[in-house]
Amino acid sequence: MLAECHDTIRIPLIETFQTPMPRRKFAWEKLSDDQLLKQRLSSLRVAVDGTWLEDCLNTLQEELGARDIRLRPHTWVSSEWFSPAGVPGVAIPFYLTHPRLMKLEKKMMLDVEGGTWSECMAILRHETGHAMQHAYQLQRRRRWQQLFGPSSKHYPRYYRPNPASRNYVQHLRLWYAQSHPDEDFAETFAVWLRPRSKWRTRYAGWPALKKLEYVDELMAEIAGKRPLVTTRERVDPLHSLSETIGEHYQKKQAFYAFKAPKTYDRDLSRLFSSDPRHRREQAASLFIRQHRAQIRQLVARWTGENQLTLDAVLDEMMSRCRELDLRAVGPKQKLVTNFTILLTAKTMHALFGPSRRKWIAL
Q1: Is the pTM of this model over 0.70?
Q2: Which of 270, 319, 334, 360 has its CA 20 to 30 A from that of 189?
Q3: How far apart are CA 168 and CA 187, in angstroms?
């Protein structure tokens, strides 16, 4: 499926979730989390109609219409975001269709991909880039291949981006344009499509500007023209997915699981105290637990790391603090700041150090 679909990756939440009440009521709304996890995806029967997603899709259509682009990507509900190869449409994850499902997603994954209006629009523009490529067979053009590379290139499970590179635009997190030629185009298209993005100024002097200028010329050529591919196929629609919601999240969590090296003792001992004189001070493990959500979200926002991974690292750090009997001594806000810096440094070392971990490419 990795070679056939173009998905996006986890994006840290910054805004409040969009959670207007849907028009339709469902029996599973009042189930406990444990009971809901036992329900099959196919039994949810949710749809985009009547939800806040309609406003996002209407806005997308307005943006395309303003550029005289005739394609209107069809959408359907599935397990995740993706645009299937050869299909000019976009699958939207089921959890965005209902506040109860967004709450469960937040609990299981610690963030909600596309859970705010601006994040949803960012992903929709990206996925529409894929739909445009599919609809107009853009990857067959020689200039497209020269600028972005061959679309036939093997789709990697992992990639190692260069954060300093100016050959790519920056739209979704983790320098996602660097993962594959198709993602490079989708990211470039998304930057071009977003109103008031001021991409000519933002990318002045960057090699990536040539790609944006090409997209601008290409879309002017396509303007008003009917798509070459018009299939309305829906790949993996929600009603066809027989796995339970619990099985879905079990696979999803395993996919993002990462066991970090246990090299925290020296750093934790510098930040916290093991001096017997401070034994009446708050335990460092409890201090971390009290501030973990705030710290995890900040580090995820600035490093791009998945919150689920950071949470596992925090668990390991708390365990080491208990074993070392460390205490939180000094001004609490200063400790929060210093601990956030420590976790950020450890995260960046894991991502970009000599033995850096490869990043998941969806």
Answers
A1: yes
A2: 360
A3: 9
